[in-house]
Design brief:
single chain, five-stranded parallel sheet, 6 helices, globular
Amino acid sequence: MSATEQADITESFQDSNAYVVCVVDDDPSVRRSVSRLLESDGFGVLAFGAPSQFLEYLSDHFVEVVVLDLWMDHMTGIELLTQLSAKSPYTRVIFITGHDDAAARANIMQSGAFDFFLKPFDDGQFLAAVRRAFLDLRKKKTA
């Protein structure tokens, strides 16, 4: 992506009320740091400490972009992706994990995830992926 395209994308995200990212991670410190990173770039954030909390929210709300931890207690990110895809097939999903697992990564991407990041990840690349996820979804909505 060229610097001009990146600047155009950044300018389009100035209204954070229009761009809310859900973050689902059972580790409070990761949840806080990812939320702060997203907020520092102008995104609104709804953070959930358990997949069940997120699924409850999803039952009454449309979610455009969600950041999921791959390995959580009670339900893996892959299991959550399966349920999410059935309930909200247009939601863009970005996975984060601290444990690189090539088989899980391949499975996740084949299952429709938008992107995958190994922690610690590059903040700029992660934020660019979140922006692209919103743009991809909104392009499909208007097509």
